[in-house]
Amino acid sequence: MRISQAFKFEAAHRLPNVPETHRCHRMHGHSYRIELVLSGRVDPRTGFVIDFFELEQVLGPLLRQLDHHCLNDIHGLENPTVENIAIWIWDKIRPRLQQLSAVKVFETAGCWAEYDGDEP
Ligand SMILES: [Zn+2]
């Protein structure tokens, strides 16, 4: 069984390693969407793979770290592409969520990265 939960945060960023002529070189903001995908067996008693409330508890501190901040200022996100944000989130929450199978980070409705813990 696979379950997903979506979260949102707003943040500013700029991409330091693109050419100066690239639009993402300039500071700008996005309404990011995170989707956590978990897979596992349905517990026969609870009926859950995992309680969504538990996911909120695990991701909450990270969301507070990201929301309405400049991502470039956060340790580990000096080059805050969606790829690097997905890896950053995965590395922080996977130890507490063994059923985590993917982290998706959407920068816009049409642009996202999906990380499943394999080699980045
Ligand atoms: Zn951007």
Topology, element by element:
Layout: E1 2-13, E2 28-39, H1 52-66, E3 69-70, H2 82-93, E4 100-108, E5 111-115
Parallel strand pairs: 1-3
Antiparallel strand pairs: 1-2, 2-4, 4-5
Residues 13, 24, 28, 30, 107 line the site of zinc ion.
Protein name: 6-carboxy-5,6,7,8-tetrahydropterin synthase
Catalytic activity: 7,8-dihydroneopterin 3'-triphosphate + H2O = 6-carboxy-5,6,7,8-tetrahydropterin + triphosphate + acetaldehyde + 2 H(+)
Function: Catalyzes the conversion of 7,8-dihydroneopterin triphosphate (H2NTP) to 6-carboxy-5,6,7,8-tetrahydropterin (CPH4) and acetaldehyde.
Jot down its keywords.
binds zinc ion, Tetrahydropterin Synthase, Chain A, 2 helices, elongated, 120 residues, alpha+beta, single chain
Q: What does this molecule look like?
A:
This protein is an alpha+beta fold. 22% of the residues lie in helices and 33% in strands. The radius of gyration is 15 Å and the shape is elongated. It starts with a strand and ends in a 5-residue tail after the last strand. Zinc ion binds at residues 13, 24, 28, 30, 107.
Summarize this entry quickly.
This is 6-carboxy-5,6,7,8-tetrahydropterin synthase. The chain is an alpha+beta fold. 22% of the residues lie in helices and 33% in strands.
